[in-house]
Amino acid sequence: MTHPIHQATEESLFGGLTREEFLKKHQVLHEESFMLNSQKMKIFTQSWRLKSANPLKGIVAMVHGYTGDSSWLIQLTAVAIAKLGFYVCALDLQGHGSSDGARGHIPDINPVVDDCIQYFDSVRLKHPELPAFLYGESLGGAIALLVSLRQNVEQWKGLILSGAMCGVSSKVKPLWPLEKLLPVAAFFLSSKRVVLTKPLTERSFKEEWKRRLVAKNPKRIHSTKPTAGTALEMMRICEEIERRSREVETPLLVLHGEDDLVCDAESATLVYENASSKDKTLKILPGVWHQFIGEPEEGVDLAFGIVFSWLEQRAKKATTAANGGLTHAGI
């Protein structure tokens, strides 16, 4: 199956179509809503499913990366996965997209993980017969991993880390001594963007026209430089993931670009090696950058072909194990 990014243009996510026309063309049903989290913040949520998918193969809960949101490029991946027969759900992280919160400011990841658990649990509770999978890109990969560590191993039948932030590349870390001064800066200037890095979009998307498409996202956080509080928390998250990687027991797919200059491929490999999962797969793609969707067509098809195949195989395995070969009831 080809990825819908191939139908996009520099001017539009949906080519020459409106979103409604695009979804109709792909026969995908789409729903949007807001949930109120424990902090009384409005968190934007949405879902996709194929009109004719009955029975469904499973649930895929998606987590986007830093400065992104669930309604832009990752939405095309959601549509692609929905077309495989999955119920796909996603939310906008606090401070991103249509959700409440200071723009791009995440000084503590725990409330964000809480939001994901609250929403994803609500979806799974409505459809307990479906095997559920976590999919996270970049920072979203780290969050998905933390969600899986917070919950019982049986709750998730698979975890996909796509260019996940298991370690921040030394090429985008703040220069010494700024890195050493981060705790002080985070304490006194938590919400200030004091971390000096080159624009991450230029290091994430190989094709220039896709960088221009990213820039047209009306909900995009224009500064990719994290605040001092966020930068410090990102470094802490990476340390926690490295420390706790042996606790990972969920079936695991680690997919990373060899030439990723944003998130460290070696750190992702270490998570794979340390993970206690009996079913784990590592794919380091030569020449590939941080965002798989930003690659030329053949690179996109290679990366997402691995994701789609892995999902379908694990969903089939989980269904067979749970139901003795019986199919799921549809939603």
Layout of strands and helices, then pairs:
Elements: H1 19-25, E1 28-36, E2 42-50, E3 58-63, H2 73-83, E4 86-91, H3 110-126, E5 132-137, H4 139-150, E6 158-162, H5 178-188, H6 200-204, H7 208-215, H8 228-244, E7 252-257, H9 265-274, E8 280-285, H10 297-323
Parallel strand pairs: 3-4, 3-5, 5-6, 6-7, 7-8
Antiparallel strand pairs: 1-2, 2-4
List keywords for this structure.
Hydrolase_4, 10 helices, globular, Serine aminopeptidase S33 domain-containing protein, alpha/beta, AB_hydrolase_1, 38% helix, 331 residues
Structural description of this entry:
By secondary structure, the chain is an alpha/beta fold. It contains ten helices and eight strands. It has helices at residues 19-25, 73-83, 110-126, 139-150, 178-188, 200-204, 208-215, 228-244, 265-274, 297-323, and strands at 28-36, 42-50, 58-63, 86-91, 132-137, 158-162, 252-257, 280-285. An eight-stranded mixed sheet has the order 1-2-4-3-5-6-7-8, with helices on both faces. Strand 7, helix 9 (265-274) and strand 8 (280-285) form a beta-alpha-beta unit. Helix 5 (178-188) packs across helix 8. The model is unreliable at 174-190 and 327-331 (pLDDT under 50).
Q: Could you tell me how far the N terminus lies from the C terminus, measured between alpha carbons in angstroms? A: 24 Å
Beta strands, count: 8
Shape: globular
Largest sheet: 8 strands, mixed
User: How much strand?
Assistant: 15-25%
Helix fraction bin: 25-40%
Count of DSSP H/I helices? 10
Q: Quick check: average pLDDT?
A: 89
For the biggest β-sheet, the strand order reads 1-2-4-3-5-6-7-8
Unreliable residue stretches: 174-190, 327-331
Instruction: List the secondary-structure elements in sequence, H or E.
Output: HEEEHEHEHEHHHHEHEH
Gyration radius from CA atoms, angstroms = 19 Å
Structural class: alpha/beta
